[in-house]
Design brief:
Number of domains: 1
Structural class: alpha+beta
Distance between the termini: 47 Å
CATH topology: Thiol Ester Dehydrase, Chain A
Number of strands: 16
Helix content: 10-25%
Largest sheet: 12 strands, antiparallel
CATH class: Alpha Beta
CATH superfamily: Hotdog Thioesterase
Length: 272
């Protein structure tokens, strides 16, 4: 794949919120991440001159834009309600030869609602077809995306890198509040590529939160950071561990782990 830098106009979209978009506490994060994940992929396809977001490598094998990190910030969660108008402005930029980043500004009825940042890298399955062994690869074609302006990610790249280093470091770790089995369901939590879908990671974290910290779990989401470290196969057991965050009111951290590896770290902050 070749890279070329050209001005990239924002993608603007408007829709009226309904039951599909609104959850028990404001805007449905599951719907939002699925929708913006599709927008991210569609922007990649547009930048490659394709009408559909289907990618292959030089050998013709399917290639997927897998998520490395996602940041969600919600300034006014109570704005989201059925009948309100959601406006989304989206931009795609290049972080490196292997990673892309998209920015999504959200407003509801003309008022600032929040923002979402997504980072992806291209991957494919190897001959084993196991999700624990997906490989980084470049898609076939020319990708015309400008480089990200310095600092535009608001520190997300560095934050994710520092977190990964801490998770890999040896040494004592505090005891978690608890641990729970959150093994995903293949028919609802996996996508068409056979991978645990990006929106399923925070959903699994929410299940653990609901079981282990019921009162906190009922608040409005105002901040989420998801660092993706791996994937699992359908029916592979998955466990969530939860720690309180003493630095943030209503904050906590959750790790998602298979029996032999960590697959994600999810940081969450909610308000009553």
């Amino acid at each position: 794949m070749r890279h070329e830098s050209f001005p990239s106009p924002a993608r603007m979209a408007q829709l009226r919120l309904g039951m599909a978009q609104c959850g028990w506490r404001g805007l449905s994060e599951g719907w939002l991440l699925r929708h913006l994940g599709d927008v991210h992929w569609a922007q990649i396809a547009q930048a490659m001159g394709q009408s559909v977001a289907v990618f292959h490598d030089e050998d013709g094998a399917p290639v997927y834009a897998a998520f490395c990190a996602i940041a969600v910030n919600v300034a006014q969660p109570a704005l989201a309600r059925p009948g309100a108008i959601l406006n989304i402005g989206s931009w795609l930029r290049r972080l490196s030869t292997t990673r892309l980043i998209s920015f999504h500004d959200l407003s509801i009825d003309g008022l600032p609602f929040g923002d979402v940042t997504m980072i992806t890298t291209f991957v494919r399955h190897d001959a084993s077809r196991r999700n624990a062994q997906i490989q980084r690869v470049q898609p076939r074609g020319v990708l015309r995306v400008p480089m990200m302006d310095p600092g535009a990610d608001a520190g997300l790249v560095d934050e994710a890198a520092q977190l990964i280093r801490r998770l890999k470091a040896d040494g004592p770790h505090p005891e978690p509040v608890g641990e729970i089995d959150v093994t995903p369901c293949p028919t609802t939590d996996f996508n068409a590529a056979g991978l645990l879908y990006c929106a399923s990671y925070p959903a699994l974290a929410d299940r653990a939160e609901w079981a282990l910290m019921r009162q906190v779990s009922q608040g409005f989401l105002i901040r989420r950071r998801i660092v993706f470290l791996g994937n699992v196969d359908p029916a592979e057991p998955l466990f969530a561990r939860l720690w309180c965050d003493p630095m943030r009111a209503g904050g906590h951290h959750i790790t998602l782990a298979a029996q032999d590896r960590l697959i994600a770290h999810v940081s969450t902050q909610k308000m009553a």
